[in-house]
Amino acid sequence: MVHPSHEHPLILHKNYIARDGDMCRGCGEQILSCKSFVYSCSTITRAGTSTRTDTGVDDKSCASFLLHKNCADLPSVVQNPTNLKGRLKLCFDHSRIVKLQFNMLLYQTIGICDICNIEMSEKHFFYYDNDFDSIICLICFMYHTQLSSEDHKSMHPSHDQHLLSLIRHPSSFRCYACNVNDNIVDMSYRCTSCQFWIHKSCADAPASFKFEFHDKHPLVLSFSLPPLYHKFRQYCRLCNKTLSPVTWIYYCRYCRFFAHFHCARSGRFLSSGENERYEDDLLQLLPAADELSVQLLREKFIKAASIRAYSSNTADSILNWVNDIKNMSHEGHHLQLINGDELKNHQIDEDTLLLCDGCTQPIRTDHFYGCAICKYFLHKFCAEFPQEIQYPAAAGVATARMVNTRYKLFSCFGCGDFGNGIYLYWNGKKFHIGCLTLPKMIKHEAHPHKLKHMIMNVAPIFASFFASICNGCERKVNNRHGCMKCRYYICNSCIMKASVVQHPWDSHSLHLIYEPGMVVDHEHDFNCEHCSEDIDSNFWFYHCHTCDLSFHLRCFEISRCSSYSNVKFGATGVINSELHHHSLQFVLNKRSRRCEKCQRKLFVEPVLKCDGTCESIFCASCISTETDIMTPLVNLIKNL
């Protein structure tokens, strides 16, 4: 199409996907997806598509030129609605009319609309008479002179109990469809019997549409959230805000993708983050491919924290544990540097990995420190870990300490899990060495923006009041990586979840699902194989695509007895005459049994077990009265 308002031919788009900031050159209104056909410059857009190809084009006027089809089809000469004997001409460019240029120089405006009394914009179309005594903006002309091809009263499927009346003039109201309450210049439908009122452009929205931000399936329009999805709170995937059960939405039942009606049509969706600038210590590889990769990454972070500490401090200001290793004794025995070739000599069997008493992770390095008699071992990098490091997520210095008694646990303020190895003490709080050494900035596939390491520095007693909900496991956490812009937070435990894992109940690999669309064509609910409860797919879970088997993150760890991954079990020779007359061993109880003292039923819990033939076990609640195992552990187990 050739139009006098533009120097190049125009191309009509029947399925135009609007972007933020797209405005019609004719009426000056925002262009909405699905609202109407749109023309664009042929030198900018490929014919027959809705994708803009304006990269590399120098002519900005062509790149931004968009025109509603209704505006493009306006007649060049019309009857003056304020003077039926007069005629008005359509002006596309005021710079071609000398008098209008004079008005701009003298009054800083080309004139005032005779109907709405608003100053005219020199960028948009308008109607004028030969003497310039009458000027009318395009919006006023269309709403006061155009005849509607529809009946004045009609029915709409969103409100089929009453008739709707077409209101031609602009009105201020809260639209039941898009929930916008402002002076939008648009015709509207108003119920003749109740308060129902919607924009005409909302009423004309298509029942289904294939949007750019979800190209797997067309999104279907629903006038309320379908009852099938009422069990869990649902969120708009574009703005991350909660969906009301009675609001209009576009959704995909196959991918469980939901979007506010207004968000879907406005084109304002989350950016991809491709243009974000990353710092040197930003990790962009999460989630890790498998559990071995997770362990290697944790080792990498601990080493990196040591390097940063030593590079920013002098040797005198940091107590390097390895400098005192020759004089340090462990229960009367010296720790020796052991060669990697001797690793198998200290393993119980080939399938049982040797665990570090510092970070409680498997030892795979060439050299490590250990006491073979006491089965006490440390990675070389754990033994050499500085006693003080700068905490990257907050101001201050964190002090490294170690649990001296291996069956005594501490609760990590960062992830909420328990541990008995090296912990970092900062501002009255204890952290796993793996939690506090995570990178300051992380990029995770679950979110388009970079995630910053942040912590709420409050007293533990007030921690729950200031905690954020983890988008991975739904727990309240204070130490997390997050995007403040989107209010998206991931706890230290979830951020290091592996992408692919194994489970003894399934011969196939299970995949980390952090967006329901990752499971193709799964319309029914996901059910946890361990607890038999439905899974809220707004949060992360593990899923087998072959068997349709799923687990909550927490249930996955419990069901394969790995929920205490930061605890090293196996301490022997624990003597407590008040509990038991035999020596005890610190173990993870993996079968249903009862505590010898309180008779409480125990399963997948840390216990002290008799080393003798009686096989008695004692729960954390009973142990805590005799030892220093943390009270939070007792409270947690009681609530299970």
Automatic annotation (TrEMBL):
Which SUPFAM superfamilies does its entry note? Cysteine-rich domain
One MF annotation (Gene Ontology) recorded for this entry: zinc ion binding
Which UniProt keywords are present, listed alphabetically? Metal-binding, Repeat, Zinc, Zinc-finger
Stretches assigned to the Zinc finger PHD-type domain: 174-240, 355-416, 527-599
Top-rank taxon of the source lineage equals Eukaryota
Which chain regions cross the lipid bilayer? none
InterPro entries reported for this sequence: C1-like_sf (IPR046349), DC1 (IPR004146), Vacuole_Formation_Reg (IPR053192), Znf_PHD (IPR001965)
Q: Locate the coiled-coil region(s) and give their ranges.
A: none
Q: Does the keyword 4Fe-4S apply?
A: no
Under the heading Pfam families, the entry gives: C1_2 (PF03107)
The name this protein goes by in its record? Zinc finger PHD-type domain-containing protein
* Origin organism lineage: Eukaryota, Viridiplantae, Streptophyta, Embryophyta, Tracheophyta
